[in-house]
Amino acid sequence: MDYKKYIAEHLHIDGVGEEELYDLIALPPNLEMGDYALPCFKFAKLMRKSPVMIAEELKQSVMSDEVIMSDKVLSEVSAVNGYLNFKINKTGFVAATLDRILKEKERYGASEEGVGKTICIDYSSINIAKPFHIGHLSTTVLGGALYRIFNFLGYKSVGINHLGDYGTQFGKLISAYKRWGDKKTIEEGGIRALNELYVRFHREAEEHPEYDDEARTYFKKIEQGDEECLALFRWFKELTLKDVQKIYDLLDIHFDSYAGESFFSDKMQPVVDELREKGLLIESRGAQVVDLEAYGMPPCIILKSDGTSLYATRDMAAAIYRKETYDFDKCLYVVAYQQNLHFKQFFKVLELMGKEWSKDLVHVAYGMVSLEEGTMSTRKGNVVFLEDVINKCIEKAYTIIDEKNPDLENKEDVAQKVGVGAVIFGALYNNKIKDIVFSYDKVLTFDGETSVYVQYTCARAQSVLQKGGVPEQYEIPELCPQEIELVKAISSFPEAVKTAAEKYEPSVIARFAVDVAQKFNKFYFDCKILAAEDERTKNFRLVLTNATLQALKNAFALLGIGIPDKM
């Protein structure tokens, strides 16, 4: 049962809707106050009464409601200092929560709210022939988590990898390959070999500026359909996608479209024509721009003085294509906060063009990820490949596991789940807008707010269940505080999933998992399970352990993290 929904449905305040009440109902800081609380301060101006008086009147209204009294869902309603507090009938609450989890299993926390709706999610968006580096971690795992979360809520998620496969850098690569490259080396080296050519080109071009002119010529040949240049461009693309697929497989990342910038090269002119027809294009220093001064932004450049397009032009063409192709209800762009202005600009231009659906475009901004060693530069060659970060985490995880449990079977498989999980969780645990300094030691600790801690908790729960089994039937004994706190924690999962989707914030689910793991471990150490005082209590605690494990598995599945059977 959704107890917040039940309470909201039975409260009646003129001028305040059920959804608003639902959002206001919160969890009090401790059990003594109640299980749920409604702060009444917001209603003081509307009702022209003090919050204390409002809370008291609402209490009397609830207590006189015959339906509520006969339901026996609530055991107590109190008004304290402007708060309306509710205590749930603990036995009924615990039974309803456990029964729901045991019935729904892998679907616990899911809903059908998004059925019939489509969410496009633009994420990862790697650059062809450039390193898939640590800086791509957040967009990749954040987008992947949102993809799973929206699918879990009934939406049709469309994952889009908007490849960076357009621009002069491909002319630079062709120039470098023709001058210093050979097919065998590039085939064997993949992205790393291509990156070495790219870095060398920039180093050599400092002394030979004519190389840049040559690169522009080669890129123009790609645009004009030159067979040799196009073949090289496609080869570079094929090698890149082959290399990065290994990373996507490790991170459990999937896409439904790889339509990159080059795909929209023939779709930009209609956008330019429409802007011109609607009188939105003006000339500025030879360039064609849309004036956004009235909206507190610099002009959005559509065409440079030489007539070439920019990111904004291509992104507008892509947005129009996506609307026509998928008829999305929302289109999310999982891109770092450094691009805030870019998205504000092209969203506004689409609005000025009369695209009503522009309001459904959302920039899901996130902070930067760096290693403790410092910053990176693709041109200078000091990049940190994401594959290396993941492999290092797996290696460190193997060493830790081997020390803790040398007789463990399938250590390689466990190390992979732990190592990959640590990388993903390290990027998703904090609020997405925060910058992250990635630390191997911090993400791989068995103590604290880490995926390893949650995975170890699951292994502990599985060990208990292997020894005690899962009873088909159970009765609820006299409940202790640790059991109630744990049930309250796992009961909040559906709300956590919903909040994560509404705020585009998978960290809500990551924090849910840590909170549940902490409460389970307190329950595990304070309450005997297999050696419980009687069979009734033992069976109940085994069922509670199983329900907790299911909730944690569901949470980690949405984040893309595996759960080892043993650790």
Task: Give an overview of the whole structure.
With 567 residues, the chain is an alpha/beta fold. The chain folds into 3 domains: 86 residues, Gyrase A, domain 2 (2-Layer Sandwich), CATH 3.30.1360.70; 205 residues, 3-Layer(aba) Sandwich (Rossmann fold); 174 residues, Isoleucyl-tRNA Synthetase, Domain 1 (Orthogonal Bundle), CATH 1.10.730. The chain is built from 22 helices and 12 strands. The strands form 4 sheets. The chain has a 4-stranded parallel beta sheet with strand order 5-4-9-10, sandwiched between helices. The chain has a 3-stranded antiparallel beta sheet with strand order 1-3-2.
Task: Give a quick set of tags describing it.
single chain, alpha/beta, four-stranded parallel sheet, Isoleucyl-tRNA Synthetase, Domain 1, 22 helices, Gyrase A, domain 2, flat, 567 residues, three-stranded antiparallel sheet, Rossmann fold, 3 domains
